[in-house]
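Chapter summary example.
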Amino acid sequence: MVRVETRSRLEVALESTSGTVTNFLEQLVGESIDAHGCRHEMIGSHTSSALRSGQDQPLLHRSATLQGRDSGRSYVYAESVIVTSRVPAGFRHRLETGNDPIGRILAEEGIEATRQALAEPDRFILAGSSEPPVAFGDYLLVRTYRIDDVTETPLMAITEWFLPALIPFLPSQ
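The structure predicted for these 173 residues follows.
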């Protein structure tokens, strides 16, 4: 089990983990994590500076809530933009047909990747939303990062909102 001393330490702990967010959450809350309420939508061919993609590369917009398998608690809401031509077919198939979070699929498919912090979400995240997915103040932490493969080719950009259900796992100061 991961011990996080304060809410502000949540961000530090996340930044220092060498594993996936999925693995971190599972250790923090003590239960397996699954992705629910997934939305998969091809947003066509767009240019994305964060992903270094051109007009000829289709992008997949995915949104999901990471929930405890046993408790059903929602711990994280995440939106991703994925350059589909840069990930293996097996990865794409698992995204579309299962409830595994991206981190678990990366690990189980043997895709070595690194995270690069981004200052703001890719402009295509939330492109189809008329309202923000999480109301201001209804989250503990929000962060955006890019996942690159071992050749430093961007695979996807992810924005995560860490939800109040995590509070019981963060001892008070």
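To summarize the output: The chain is about 20% helix and 35% strand.
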